[in-house]
Amino acid sequence: MTGKKKPLSPRAARREAERAAVKLARDRERLASLEPGGSPERPIEITSASEVEVAARGKPCARCGGEVRVDEHLAETVGTSRLRIARVFCPACGARRSIYFRLGAGLPN
User: Fold this and answer.
1) Could you say which of 6, 17, 88, 98 would form a disulfide bridge with 68 (CB–CB 3.0 to 4.6 Å)?
2) Alpha-carbon span 63 to 40, nearest angstrom
3) Where are the alpha helices (DSSP H) in the chain?
4) pTM above 0.85?
5) How far apart are CA 73 and CA 93, in angstroms?
């Protein structure tokens, strides 16, 4: 035996590519949860609540990299911290995620 692999059929190659894309999307989502704003333990510091939606729209979709739309903006207490949470939706791939913010001290006048 020469050890050469048999070439994949078009269907098998397509299925392998689809599995790789799903795995990549899952890995990108996991990585996004470790970035600032990806979890309540790592909120993004902002100075005003009006910055939440602008900052959330500025972050690309964790799964496909497309633009996201803010579905809702909430103020919640998570543990002992009062956080702002932007729930975003990607129209391109349908991914949903939450981005966490904490209001910091404002700049002195």
Assistant:
1) 88
2) 20
3) 10-34, 51-58
4) no
5) 21
